[in-house]
Structures are given as C-alpha cells and as structure tokens.
Specification:
Two copies of one chain form a homodimer.
Chain A lengths: L2 E4 L1 H14 L4 H16 L10 H9 L10 E5 L3 E5 L5 H19 L1 E9 L5 H9 L3 E7 L20 E5 L7 E5 L6 H10 L8 E2 L5 E2 L10 E2 L10 H17 L27 E9 L6 H16 L15 H13 L1 E4 H14 L6
Helix pairs in contact in A: 1-2, 2-4, 4-5
Chain lengths: 361, 361
C-alpha cells in the first residue's frame, strides 16, 4: 500500500471546501471538518476524511440535507429528543451534545436522543465536548445492519458503538470508544485490501457458519457480536448492541434494527421505514454533581497509575489505558502529518474534480 | 447433584428470619429478602439465597452493618452520591434507585453513585424498579477483583456487571443484565462442582497463559474480560469493566480496581483502601421525557417481534430477547417452586442452627 502524508491544515482546508460545495454553512463546514480531522489525528482512519466521499454520494442522492433544520421536538429539564433534519451526523450530534451539556450545567445531567440523522463520525469527538467542561460524556449511535444476533442468520444490527469519557488530572481523559461487534468493519476492510483471512469469531457466512473469508459480508454473511459465539458471551455483545439501538432509535423515533438506512449510497433505504434516519444517544453528567472535581481527578489519575503498572504477561505489552493510544496518535500526527492511503486520495481527488475544487494531490 | 425444591413463601420466611437475626429492621429484612428471592425466581441461582450465608459471614466479621445509616452526601437536582453506611447492598441499592427515580420524576432523569456498600444482588432487580415507573433503568456495580485486563497477569477488576432495562407494551421488559467478563464466576463454579474443563477464553493461569482448568482461580489465575483475547476484542470487555469501576467507585468515593474488598469473609480487605466499601451506579430516565410512552412501547414491541422472528441458524435455537428467559423462569418457579442444590441447603441449615432458627429442611 502507498501512503501520502498531509499536514492537518491542508486536509482541513480541502475538507471544508468540499462541505461548502455541498451547501453547508461556513459554521457547519468548519464543525463537520473538525469531527473528521480529529478522527484522522487520533488514528481512527476508517472514520476520518476517508468517509468524506461517502457523505458526498449520500448528499447527491438527497439522503443528506446540507442545510438541515435541527430542532428539539420534545424535552424536560434534563432530557430531550432532537430531530436532525436529515443533516450530517457530524453537525447534528455536536448540536445534541451542546443541549445535553447545557442541561447538565443547570441540573447536573443532560440526555438527548436523536432521530433523523446520519453517520456521526467518531463517538469520542462528542464525548470529549463534555470532558472539556469537566463532565462525563456518553455517546452511542445505531448504524447500518451488518451484525447478526446470537443464533440468527440475518444482519439486524449495526456495529453500534458505545463511548464513555472521563476527565482525568495529570493524564489524558480516559475514553472507552468501542464497536459492540467482535471486530469493527474497518478491520475487515483492511483484511480485504490485504487479501488476508480474518480470525475465527469475527464473521459468519451466509449459512450462519464460522468463516475466515474477509469478503463474506458481500456474499450474505454477517459480522458477529462482541463475544463471537454463545459460549464466549456473544449474547452480551448482542445485548449491548440492542441497548444502543433502543436508546438511539426506539427512544427518539429513528429507524432501528434492519430498518436503519445503509451508509452507502448504492444501497437503498427500506421502503417501509419505522422511523426517521438513524439515531444517536448522547449524555453529559457534571463530575461535581457527585464529588469535588479535584478529588475525582486525582482518584482517576491513581486508577490510571495502578492499571498502567499492572503485572505484564509479556515484556513488550503494557495494559492499554482506554484513550491513551489515540491521545498519542494525535500528538504525533498534529506534529508530523496525517497519512492517507493512495486509494483514499484518488477517491477524494475524483470528488474534488466533480465539485470543481483543487485536487488533494 | 441433588436438588430440593421449596415454595417461594417458605424460602422468603426463612431468608427474612436470617436477616432479622442479623439485626436488620423488619423493612430491611423484607427488602433484602425480596432481592434474593427475585434472583432465585428469575433463575439466577448464583445471586439468590445461595449467597445468604456469605452475607452472614461478612456480618459476623463486622464488614456488613445490619443497621446502616444510608445517606445522601452530595447532590444536584439530578445527581447524588450516597453513602451506604457499610450496609447490605441489597438495601442500599434500592434506596439509591428510589432517589434516582424521585429525581427523574421531577426533572426527567436521576443518577446516583454509591460508596460504602456491599454486594447488591442482581442488577436487574434495581433497574426493574425504574421500569415499574415507566422509566428506563440503569444499574452497575464494581466487585471483588477476579478479572485481568488485556495483557495483564493480575486480577484488577471484578466481573463488574452492567444492566439496562426498558419497559415494553405487550411483552415483558427488555432487560440486558451482564457481567463484563467473558464468563460469570457462577459458571466457573458449576464447572468446578462438575469437575469439567471450561472453554478456552474464559480464564488464564497464573502465568497469564490460556487454560481450561476451572480451578485456575484458586491457583493465581484470572477470569478474562468479555472478548477473551485482544484479537476478539477483550480490550472492549476491559473498557466496559473500567467504565463500571469508574462510574461506581471513582465517582462516588468507593474502592476501585484491586482495592475493592473481597465478597468472601475469609479474605481480608486491603489494609490501605482508596475509598469506602464497594460502589454502585444507578440511574433512571423517564421514557416520556423523550417521546410519548405508548409510542415507545409499541415500537419496542415491534423491535421484539422483529428480533424474535430473525432467520435462525438452527431449528431449535431462536434469538433470545434479553430478559425473556428470566421472565419465563419467574413464571415457572413462582408456580412450581425454587430448586436449591443440596450443598446450598446444608450451608443454609448450618447458619440457621448457628443463629437459632428453624432449619430449612
């Protein structure tokens, strides 16, 4: 594979100009760009500018509204449902998180379920908005069906990620950001490009039998829930994924389960939707709603210290504190640039040409 | 194995009299009994009256206070920290959930972190309190260290369960209640009693290497997080467990990680605790804080219908809707009695004799 490395500012300018060409306001283009670039900076290549052309194709098909009317449709002092107006999840989710944070500022906590949205990028972006305010952040989203529940031979759930973020003192925030499937779809795509088999327990074939062929999904196979099989707790991965689906969509009025619209423009959404767009669930809780902030932070630092110094099985593998690898990637890529694979660059250049924008390379 | 079957009322009377002998108030004895019996009724034998003698032994050692001063030590309109006064988690957690529900009634949601508590029984008991009020219930607790983080050869986390419960319409509530380890400790105990090996991926030995020996934990081994190994996402199980630990203990001022006091009386708690007792985290959100209740319930019924009718891999295995097996067990055991293994009956009889109570059989 060939990589090209770009400065953060170059990628930002390019991305912003694409969003503007789609008709996004300057403010929305800036925000959507920030979500994507943060993902690349943090080393989550599958959710960064590599997805930009996908958003453009959905917009071309009229499935993303670049000028959405995002509004609160139902609320109490600490809960709300937001209709994203079919906008980019990249702008709808930060809007929702702002509402959650405002409620938390007044009442201690705030919780927002979102309908009529689209892919919201990395969940960690949204939870970090809460962490910056010394709050605990929660973010979840449902997603296009790729995962089969335990015992099923049908794709009924997305990789439905959950994210929890906690502000620490001397350390970077502890951020758990994880798909509820055994493997994220991005890992499968890497194996596809490399032509390598995947481990047992990631996928099943169209007959519901174990497989290691990374192309299985195109042939009617499914991803498996975290836990992989019943004996190893796949019903738990299914339960977590169900929780995300219910909080994000059954609660907000979005589509759930197999009705969630596909992220790819070449697949059509269900002709009989049960709700509007895809759903998210976001929350914020003030740390000082529970104990003084400095006490919490110093104990979380102690937690990090203790887990970082756990006895190791192998000399070269320490316990990984959730969020630390991404924090280090951001330091490195901010300084030395963001690598994109050739395939992504070509894809971005094509879209740039079509929209009449200076190509990336 | 030999089983004896008891009526619900007989087991309730027996259990209540034990708690009263410990010095619990009539109200607390009633409540603690209800939590344990609900567990047996729902088929979660590991968390029912089988644990009663364990509570007695901790009380004998002065590690459980039968007349605790349970109080709110910090709060905002929708958040609170509760000190459980070293009481039974079986009474402390329902107290905390009541506070969460009261806050949710007024403001839409309520969240309570608890310190200085003990084992709280099944998490589902507490979330069902919220469901009865047409709210969504959340419950988590940290627990004695048995689980090693990914790459570590040290028991730093409990099986730290998470529970989410949602009220449905024509169906029983959807209740996800799961340990964040690959296998719950109860399953290991069954294998020990039967002298059978356990599947790969549940435990590691004292060298951090894979093992199938169910006695490994007594020899310095550890349980593994959900996902079992890094390739299958054990860092996700670790992340979930970490989330439970932080919300339950770092937030409340309880002990976390390796400092969590052991549930068994023959092991001493840490001489240098970082907090008070064990910690829980409970929450309630009004469904109608997001959308009209009847709409939510009818969509959740539709969700259950769709997942129940998923294409099956095998004719005899349907997709299991979280909470349904426990609901059916409760119907059956309420009608036909609760089976206890001989070993548990003997243990209960011994304690009864010691406390001067009529034996169970």
């Amino acid at each position: 594979m060939t990589y090209h490395t770009f400065t953060e500012s170059k990628l930002r300018e390019f991305t912003k100009s694409i969003f503007k060409k789609m008709g996004c306001s300057a403010e929305h283009a800036e925000l959507a760009t920030d979500v994507l670039i943060k993902s690349d900076l943090r080393g989550i290549d599958s959710h960064g500018v590599a997805r930009l052309t996908g958003y453009v194709r959905l917009w071309e098909k009229g499935r993303i509204n670049a000028q959405p009317d995002i509004k609160i449709v139902h609320e109490t002092p600490t809960t709300a449902t937001i209709d994203g107006g079919a906008g980019l999840g990249l702008v709808v989710a930060p809007f929702a998180m702002k509402v959650a944070i405002e409620k938390a500022e007044k009442y201690g906590s705030g919780w927002v379920s979102v309908r009529n949205s689209n892919h919201f990028g990395i969940a960690a972006y949204h939870t970090m908005m809460a962490v910056e305010k010394d709050m605990i952040g929660f973010a979840m989203t449902n997603a296009s069906p790729l995962v089969a529940p335990t015992f099923a031979n049908e794709r009924l759930l997305g990789t439905n990620p959950m994210c929890y973020a906690f502000p620490a003192g001397k350390y970077p925030p502890v951020i758990v950001d994880m798909a509820t499937s055994a493997a994220a779809n991005g890992k499968l795509e890497i194996a596809q490009r490399m032509g390598k088999p995947v481990p047992d327990g990631w996928i099943q074939n169209s007959e519901g039998q174990p497989s290691t062929d990374p192309h299985e999904l195109k042939k009617g196979g499914s991803l498996l829930p975290l836990g992989s099989d019943r004996e190893h707790g796949s019903h738990k991965g299914f339960g977590l994924s169900a929780t995300v689906d219910i909080l994000s969509a059954v609660l907000s009025g979005a589509n759930y389960g197999p009705w969630v619209p596909p992220f790819v423009a070449f697949m059509e959404p269900s002709a009989n939707p049960v709700g509007l767009g895809i759903g998210h669930f976001l929350g914020a809780m003030r740390v000082d709603g529970f104990r003084p902030l400095d006490e919490f932070k110093s104990h979380l630092d102690n937690w990090v210290d203790r887990f970082s110094s756990a006895k190791q099985i192998s000399a070269d593998q320490k316990v990984i504190i959730p969020g630390q690898p991404e924090f280090l990637a951001e330091k490195e890529r901010s300084a030395f640039g963001i690598p994109l694979i050739d395939e992504v660059c070509k894809d971005l250049n094509e879209v740039a040409m079509k929209l009449g924008i200076e190509p990336l390379i």
